[in-house]
Amino acid sequence: MIEIRTIDQLPLDGAKVFYRVDYNVPLDGTRITDATRIEETLPTLRRLLDARAAIVIASHLGRPKGERKAKYSLAPVRERLAELLGREVKWADDCVGDAAQQSLKPGEVLLLENLRFHAGEESNDQAFAAELRKLADVYVNDAFGACHRAHASIDALPRLFPTDHSAGGLLLARELEFLQKVTHVTDRPFVALMGGAKIAGKIEPLEALVKLADTVLIGGGMANTFLVATGVEMGGSLVDKDSIDVATRILQGSKVELPVDLVVADDLENPTKIETVSGALRPDQKAFDIGAQTIQRYTEILRGARVVFWNGPMGVFEKEAFARGTMAMARAVAEADAITVVGGGESVEAVKASGFASKIDHISTGGGASLEFISGASLPGVEVLRKR
Predict the structure, then answer these.
(1) Candidates 145, 219, 345, 366; catalytic one
(2) Out of 270, 277, 311, 363, which could bridge 343 as a Cys pair, Cβ 3.0 to 4.6 Å?
(3) Active-site hit among 62, 107, 236, 368
(4) How far apart are CA 148 and CA 150, in angstroms?
């Protein structure tokens, strides 16, 4: 089990804290469409404020690739954060230099501009980390969604603080607590529900889950590739041809369940021939969701689970005609008498759309990070904060 240093062990009273978060929120222009990642940091922020800390908040947003680009500015985040926190949030139009080195009183909050406007962030540059180090006395990381990246504010920077002055926040600690309930299962059966478009990018987590779980339920576009690997004709469906051999290897165990029927159509945007099919698809048919029989089968399996991990939708849930499978799985996971963990990414959008988010034990803020953790990979942002 991994144990990290926590904020309860830090000298916070009156300290200036560098607080690394993941405010990589979805934007429609300058409008934040989902503030979950901001909301999840509020408990840590309030704990720091209760301790009379001055807080310097740092985050990335998007992929500006080391260049200052207005569409990736964190300015819209400042407004929403101030609203949620119920207090003024000061602003620095850069994350290093004079703009960032502002004098703060205990209880004041400063948000820095996008870390990734500097190439040194993604290259884990020591000199860039040293500039960030000038901003605070204590380091706290709650950016679980970025912990699988060896970036300067995640890896190099905390190493510049004394060990007893760096720790994980409440959110990071919660992420590790629940994900380790999946990697170190004590109550069975453990059921994994995996979906999404492709197998590529999820090979290691899938292979790990086949070993960890009692049953792995497959849906979404990746199910097409698995079905092809079993010899089923999938018509015009999305198939990850480069991963057929991987699917064949994963299927050698007896733990994987595949859809027995699929909702198909001739076209995604303007479907005119929607039907449910068991077996081979015609060339003009494309699979966009799991069918009613599969929903019933998967629901029965989830009903008996004691631990559930879900990553990836069962179909193109953004389209109402193909949302039934994903919404049904959201209900089944929420109603399971089990520890339920949703592993970030599109799964979060799906759970929220279903209305069952409040009934899930833990919804991860990091899709890629949660999958890497499940697969057994070492996360740089976690390793640097581990108790030794």
Answers:
(1) 345
(2) 311
(3) 368
(4) 7
CATH number of the domain where residue 32 is located:
3.40.50.1260
When pLDDT is averaged across residues 58-62 and rounded to a whole number, the result is: 97
Any idea what DSSP says for residue 377?
P
Task: Reply yes or no on whether 355 is catalytic.
Answer: no
Residue carrying structure tokens 């090979």:
203
Q: Which of 20, 37, 174, 286 is an active site residue? A: 37
What's the predicted TM-score (pTM) here? Answer: 0.92
For 275-326, what is each residue's pLDDT tens digit? Answer: 999 999 999 999 999 999 999 999 999 999 999 999 999 999 999 999 999 9
Is 345 a residue of the active site? yes
CA gap 324, 310 in Å, rounded: 16
More confident residue, 270 or 12: 12
The pLDDT of residue 244? 94
Q: DSSP assignment of 33-50, as one string?
A: S--HHHHTTHHHHHHHHH
Is residue 37 part of the annotated active site? The answer reads: yes
Taking phi over 0 as left and psi of -120 to 50 as alpha, with beta for the rest, 344 belongs to left
Strand 54-58 with 286-290, pairing: unpaired
- The whole domain housing 95 covers 7-170
Determine whether 198 is an active site residue: yes
Final residue of a domain: which of 124, 139, 170?
170
In whole numbers, what is the pLDDT of the chain averaged over residues?
95
Q: Are 299 and 332 in contact (CB under 8 A)?
A: yes
Which H or E run contains 355? none
Q: CB neighbours of 369 closer than 8 A, spacing ≥ 6?
A: 144, 145, 146, 147, 148, 175, 344, 379
Structure tokens at 155: 């890896």
- Active-site pick, 16, 20, 198, 324: 198
The total domain count for the chain is 2
Confidence at residue 349, expressed as pLDDT on a 0 to 100 scale? 85
